[in-house]
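PROTEIN–LIGAND DATA SHEET

This sheet pairs a single protein chain with one bound small molecule, flavin mononucleotide, given as SMILES. Inputs appear in the order they were entered. The predicted three-dimensional arrangement of chain and ligand is reported afterwards as a token string under its own label.
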Amino acid sequence: MTSFRDAVLGGGYRAVVKPLAFQFDPEMVHDRISYFGMTLGRFGLTRAVTRAMFGYEHPLLATTVAGMQFRNPIGLSAGFDKEGRLIDVIPAVGFGFMEIGSVTGSPSPGNAKPRLWRLPRSRALVVHFGLNSSGSAAVASRLATHPCRIPLFVSLAKANLPAFDGQTTGISDYVTAATNLRDVGAAKVINISCPNTTGGEPFADPAAFDALLTAIDQVGVTQPTFIKLPIHLPWSQLDEVLDVAERHQVTGFICTNLIKDRTQAKILDRQVPAKGGISGKVIWERSNEVLAHVYQRTGARLPLIGVGGVFSADDAYQKIRLGASLVQLITGMIYRGPSLISEIKRGLVARLQRDGFSSVAAAVGADYRPSPSTH
Ligand SMILES: Cc1cc2nc3c(=O)[nH]c(=O)nc-3n(C[C@H](O)[C@H](O)[C@H](O)COP(=O)(O)O)c2cc1C
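PREDICTION REPORTED AS:
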């Protein structure tokens, strides 16, 4: 269900832009593209041209989740715009929402470069940024008076520095982030699953997670709050994390972050950097297993955001049918180009109509219902 416009733009991206861009260092290319995106976002005319090239909306895609209204369920995942510099252009590209960050409480330099690689055969990226962030005070002061045209999710993390590796100091940096960014954006995400920090993922431990949420509850964030879940937890530990979250002010979950364990990942490339978490098609299956597990375990009561390996409308639709109220992506856009967003949205409309759903919400979790006549 690709339109002529999307076919031309997507074909042009894959034939010209991508082969050229893939000759250069991935982080350098990302920085250049971000700078170009900031420029496009700055002026009404360039935003309008971007919208004309990439926009597409349909009433069937409009959806309400946790009291927030979305013109479509496709969002930009955390990590592409860590500093919130692209909030003017991302809505024009057609995303229904975006997540910025992760933003750390204190400034955090991240790991040494190089820290981003491509795995072209696997259609994946290896990410070893290690939470580079100018810190919550700088991001808050830049965004406090800068509205975003789509729901803005702000991902919070603790600085990746030895000083914050302890439980108490780690919690205090999350609290700094939540406090400084309390009034920024429409929703918060607590990232407990960055695979690239010196201290590991201490808050995936249920007791530490409980202590973290107890401290964050005190900040009095009034917006919906989501937890970004790791991909690799044993089911029993994941269930404990879910149980802890339900005792606190948690709205829903994002499933999932990157995978670190190379033995669990279906990697087709011969050379794989030893460090870093892997995104894209490599995590497609496992992120869906986690999504399905969390949906069933939480009894479909809490909204879920599905992320990991979305490269097509079929992929996004599958995440929705497995229980995602919203879907995010990064790697698919890098491999297939920004016209993928419109291609996915058109394809979603066609699939919802084909299967007789009157809304995105009606299709959420459809795979667990006995027959199509129930919607
Ligand atoms: C370059 C890059 C940086 C990322 N940084 C973050 C981050 O700071 N915080 C976070 O929660 N997830 C981060 N992620 C994970 C993504 O948000 C997402 O969960 C993951 O990439 C799977 O989606 P994808 O297969 O569509 O890329 C990052 C991913 C990439 C590719």
